[in-house]
Queue: 2 jobs
Job 1
Amino acid sequence: MRYNTSMKNLKNALLLKQLYQLKQLGYKYTSVTAYKDEEQDFTLPNTLKSLEKQAIECYLCELSKSRHKVVFGEGNQDADILFIGEAPGATEDSTGKPFVGRAGELLTKMIENVLHISRNDVYITNIVKCRPSNNETPTPSQAHTCQPYLLKQIELIRPKLIVTLGVTAYHYLTGDDTELSKVRGTIHKQNDYTIIPTYHPSYLLRNPSAKKEVFDDLLKVKELMAK
Ligand code: URA
């Protein structure tokens, strides 16, 4: 999705939130002129630190009601490789860090044993920054509301390569709903960045035989990084 569309989603979500607040205060009517675009500053901060601060204070979707911690992302702010997963799970929700549960341990091994770099050298984040209850797949509305944060992270980190983990990350980032088995390991160019989709580590925990494919995809990542 383009950044402009994504900003529009953020504006709509903010507007909706303001209207709910007014409703709670007892308002039955309000003037739409109060919400003219130019009267609001919707620009997101230009540093990851302030962006994270804004995300931590975000209540734009229902995931904010049940989360314990916002899981913004972590790693090298100048990383060449950005990994994008789906959504925080229980361990991530309680620690505020991405990919620290079982799937996270596997991701760390993949980074260290195949790419031969440290996990601290890359940046890791998710499509949505708050845990969906019962680990459900984020809804399109949740993903779109959260997308401005992700797009701004990409803009600030400017990675050479984005590796999407699992079908949800690939689908929400690119809008392409081709089966993951058909696109994994291929290069997808979008705006001025390059995406390589691969399987999610949680999928590998359930289907260890797919590790070979992920190994091949990461070798491709390694090859591209060496260029
Ligand atoms: N799965 C994800 O997609 N992201 C996490 O941070 C953890 C598990």
Job 2
Amino acid sequence: MLSEAPAVAEFYGSFIGGEEASASTASTFQTFDPATGLPLTTIQRGAQADVDAAVANAQEAFPAWRDLPGFERGRILLAISRKILENKDRLVELESRDNGKSYMDAGFDVITAARYFEYYAGVADKLGGETIPIGATHVSYTRPEPYGVTAHIVPWNAAFQQAARGVAPALAAGNVAVVKPAEDTSITTVVLAKLAIEAGLPAGVFNVVTGLGREAGAALVKHPGVSRITFTGSVPTGQEIMRSAAENLNPVTLELGGKGPNIIFEDADLSAAIPGSLMAININAGQVCAAGSRLLVHSSIHDQVVEKLVTMNAGVKLGAGWTGAQMGPITTAAQFKKVQEYLEIGKNEGAIVAVGGSAATGDGVDGGQFIQPTIFTGVKNSMRIAQEEIFGPVLSVIVFDTEDEAVAIANDTPYGLTAGMWTQNLGRAHRVAAQIEAGQVSVNDYFAGGVQAPFGGYKASGIGREKGMSAIHEYLQTKAVSIKL
Ligand code: NAI
Ligand code: MG
């Protein structure tokens, strides 16, 4: 625990062609510390010209990066991973101040980011094609080839980790990248680009344009020099980006959030299920696309589960990350307002506040955007608090009686990103996992896939897959070469 908030630089600017923009010439905007409401730093408000420069630098860097032997790209990515770990403490401080994360959550993000570069470093020299038997008179084979400039639009909830999640596989596959971080949380993406240069990445391979979504972000996704787009964020913005991508016929990966069902069956080991289910909603103050935000509990164990969850939630310490608190604030002012609105919506819909239920006040949280970790009971799956992504520490508890009913409730939302279940019955685990409409299912755990398991949405939760070998294939296009002998 520190005695005061760690310092943050006065300015962070776009990082293009290996150089950071200068504070003296940049158009800027102010960001705020979500734990106090006080000014935090100044960020360059990137415009069309900055996006043009970033794309041009990336295009120039592309052929040499693409043509490096895979093992050499891999060595550089591994060096970036090591750089991240060497700078872990500072990155945690910066991410925590910028986003509001607890040090535990920020530490998890930094380590995960390092893992992305490590994992894809090992993949970079293993990307072969196949030979196709088209007949004795011909030789036919495929070449997996990178697209060129990939654009990455990153949200604010896990800025550093999400930037790494897209950039590491894109670069491993031989692409070059331009990243537009979210306006509220640009700091660690700019720092990552600098660390990558220190680790030996050639200038121009990884560029960052800071700025607003409707300015720098929109300019980037419409840019004719961009060949592939990766976006994580809200459904409407994802739809808008997909429409922009259609203009240039660019493929998209869209990760658009969820309303994760987390099912506790009557045969679950409650000593694991209860803390695991609370972690699934409280991590990063619930600002997680994959959060287990709907807790489906069998009627026979409902009361005992809720009682324990309420006791544990009441003890959660809120505060700025550097104070050692367990849960930080809501990152953006707009999101803070949105979560409070959903607390009122839930009450008006007739759900019962078992614990929490409002913004937090008092020493260490006044002025900040803190929400009391909240549990609603008596929730019907048709309520808005069960259907819509709240993106805050708000758990909706829904009762069920049979396995079929649990599956039906689990699948009854527009989303399908992640799901969890807790059961000792192996047959049930496989049976239910097969019936759940979601891209990722965890059993007797939540968020179990690490960086290796494919991650992405069914239904309105998105298109394409990130993480694992699936992501590498998203960043490669196949060329078939056939030769008559
Ligand atoms: P958003 O989708 O508007 O913003 C995400 C990113 O897109 C930011 O970098 C933003 O600058 C950029 N952006 C916005 N408009 C753009 C445009 N026209 N062209 C290109 N880039 C653009 O999300 P917002 O407003 O920050 O949050 C709204 C809701 O979205 C949240 O309440 C939450 O429910 C959901 N969300 C989901 C996330 C996830 O992990 N899937 C992450 C963040 C938010
Ligand atoms: Mg928005």
